[in-house]
Amino acid sequence: MNLDGAVDVDVESGLATAQSVSQIVDDMQAVIRQIATAASTGVSSWNGRASNAFDNTHTDWNSSATALNAALDDIRNQLTAGFSGYDDQDSQAAGGFGAEGPLRL
């Protein structure tokens, strides 16, 4: 907010930030997939109690990873939608002023 009370939103910077966050989310999800693949591959050739314990831990980790992926998707979607929608709403609001002609008192 600036000194006269107006809100200044730099939509272009916001969209660039949203794109950057989206790339980070993609990178994080790729790492999560790599970990899950490596763990699944390792447990398939491993036998014994340690294997069972690892499998249980991996199952818990996978549940957490699924929740993390959902949260990351939500962050990306909300951030992108917020800035994409703002520009449209601002343009629509601006078009409403003076649409009926000059203000008459």
From TrEMBL:
It holds the Pfam family WXG100. Residues 83-105 are annotated as: Disordered. Belongs to the WXG100 family. This is ESAT-6-like protein. It comes from Gordonia oryzae.
